[in-house]
Design a protein that fits this description.
InterPro entries: PDZ (IPR001478), PDZ_sf (IPR036034), Pept_S1C_Do (IPR011782), Peptidase_S1_PA (IPR009003), Peptidase_S1C (IPR001940). Belongs to the peptidase S1C family. The chain is α+β, with helices and mostly antiparallel strands and 533 residues long. 23% of the residues lie in helices and 30% in strands. The protein has eleven helices and 29 strands. The two termini are 60 Å apart. The N terminus is likely disordered.
Length: 533
């Protein structure tokens, strides 16, 4: 039991005595002073003081903190399994081992951490980690097979097991071990790299313990959660914590929408479940962020509502089909919002429309801002991407868009995705052009897109506009030398004078920013040019 220091234990009675003394002195001063209080008024004043000094009411809690997680752990742990995956290792130079980081793109905040961890474990000859907690056993000589350890959970008494794709990716053999030590070979039913999910199947003579999905949309930041898994290959381990944040985008795929948890999640927890206090799965532990190889209280879990739709498709057909709209989209920044007349930076800006796509057939245009999809608000790129992906091919939905400052509803019939739509490219362009204009336009040095400029920059005849040859040091706009400005506002431009005219007219109209369509190495996107501070 924790004992408070004497000064702290005595402070409360001293303060109460002081308050009582102040109350008596105040009443006496009021009675003796020039202001005379009647009995009812004095009674009302005393009641008011008593109410102020009273203990404030307790805050209503969304969840009651449990005295123990023991009953919950005993209830759900039998359905949580350990997964061992054997992969055929390819011979590779020693210097290159541990460099691959499956599941995370180059430059992600996890890449360097995993590389350092792998290098260290390779030097020590110990287990080697993968994204979100899978472990590999690797030697330092010629290699034949490697083993990955992760977690999973039984979602159906018939033996269907959910885990992460990166736990079993490339495996030639998969073994599932139950809490009682029973080991069974598992068959891969299907996997989905975009959401990092996989579904396995084991055969059993009797129904297996299983758990149910929760409705993750009802999970709040601050809710209690409990994670169960196989950290560092130690076997069933239980940790508890809260949901630290929702909707985290860790740049691991196009459908990122992670819960952030402070429950300890370590290597080997990948694919394991996170439970609410009812024992239902709210998420699948997938990734951690750590500078030291262990949990620092930042783990990420795939929400159950995203996972269960993918798992259902894998169970039914072994693959996942997604909807396709056929647009390249980009974020609406505050400057872009100002330039198109939006009160806040929400929505998804259409940077390009794919030929012969549902978007083109529905009449979507470059520069349209998608505000809602099938009645659901689109606050950012991920909202639109996920909603389109979850729509069945052939379904018709309504898009609410903003075009030329006016909202409009556009019906669209969604097709099946054959390849992943891409966000407007962020590739850079370099180069310079001749005949540079002497006076820059808002800090942009421009030149006509003539034959010499096309040859120097490798720009085809199909691209029309004005080439950016340089920027003044004061320019704060995502434009680079070599970009071609194709449109300013709603007007196509063919000369630096056209650009200057559109900027001047926008400034006269009192606009804070002006939307421009640029072409960078064949990829079109919109940028907002600030006109006023």
């Amino acid at each position: 039991m924790t004992t408070l220091p004497p000064a702290q234990t005595e402070r409360q009675p001293q303060n109460r005595t002081q308050r009582q003394g102040r109350l008596r002195r105040t009443v006496a001063a009021l009675l003796l002073g020039s202001t005379v209080l009647t009995a009812p008024a004095l009674a009302g004043w005393a009641a008011s003081q008593a109410q102020q000094n009273a203990t404030p009411p307790a805050v209503t809690m969304v969840q009651d903190a449990p005295g123990s997680f023991a009953d919950l752990a005993a209830k759900v742990s039998p359905a949580v399994v350990n997964i061992a995956a054997t992969q055929e290792a390819k011979a590779e130079p020693r210097a290159q081992r541990g460099q691959a980081v499956p599941g995370f793109p180059p430059g992600s905040p996890f890449e360097e951490f995993f590389r350092q961890f792998q290098d260290q474990m390779n030097r020590n000859g110990g287990p080697n980690g993968g994204p979100g907690g899978d472990q590999d056993d690797q030697d330092q000589g010629p290699r034949g097979k490697t083993g990955a350890l992760g977690s999973g959970f039984i979602i159906d008494p018939a033996g269907y097991v959910v885990t992460n794709n990166h736990v079993i990716d490339g495996a030639s053999e998969i073994t599932v071990t139950l809490q009682d030590g029973t080991a069974m070979p598992a068959k891969l039913i299907g996997r989905d790299a975009k959401t990092d999910l996989a579904l396995l199947k084991v055969k059993s003579d009797k129904p297996l313990p299983s758990v149910d999905w929760a409705d993750s949309d009802k999970t709040h930041v601050g809710d209690w959660v409990m994670a169960v898994g196989n950290p560092f290959g130690l076997g069933g381990t239980v940790t508890k914590g809260i949901v630290s944040a929702r909707g985290r985008d860790i740049h691991s795929g196009p459908y990122d929408d992670y819960f952030q948890l402070d429950a300890a999640i370590n290597r080997g927890n990948s694919g394991g479940p996170t439970f609410d206090l009812s024992g239902h799965v709210i998420g699948i532990n997938t990734a951690i962020y750590s500078p030291n190889g262990g949990s620092v209280g930042i783990g990420f879990a795939i929400p159950s509502n995203l996972a269960k739709e993918v798992v259902a498709q894998l169970k039914e057909s072994g693959k996942v089909e997604r909807g396709w709209l056929g647009v390249k989209i980009q974020e609406v920044t505050p400057d872009i919002a100002d330039s198109v007349g939006l009160p806040s930076a929400k929505g998804a800006l259409v940077a390009d429309v794919t030929a012969d796509s549902p978007a083109q057939r529905a009449g979507l245009h470059q520069g349209d801002v998608v505000l809602s999809y099938a009645g659901k608000p689109v606050n950012n790129l991920r909202d639109l991407t996920r909603n389109v992906a979850e729509t069945k091919a052939g379904d018709s939905i309504d898009l609410k868009i903003l075009r030329d400052g006016r909202e409009k509803t556009v019906p669209v019939r969604i097709d099946r995705l054959s390849e992943q739509p891409q966000v407007a490219s962020a590739d850079t362009g370099n180069g310079s052009a001749e005949h540079e204009e002497v006076a820059p336009v808002k800090g942009l040095k421009l030149a006509p897109l003539d034959r010499a400029a096309r040859k120097r920059l490798g720009i085809g005849e199909d691209v029309q506009g004005v080439v950016v040859t340089g920027l003044s040091s004061s320019v704060d706009v995502p434009i680079r030398p070599g970009d071609v400005i194709e449109r300013v506002g709603d007007t196509e431009v063919k000369s630096p004078a056209d650009v200057r005219h559109q900027v001047t007219e926008a400034e006269k109209a009192g606009q804070k920013a002006l939307l421009m369509l640029i072409n960078r190495q064949g990829n079109e996107s919109f940028v907002a040019l600030k006109l006023k501070a």
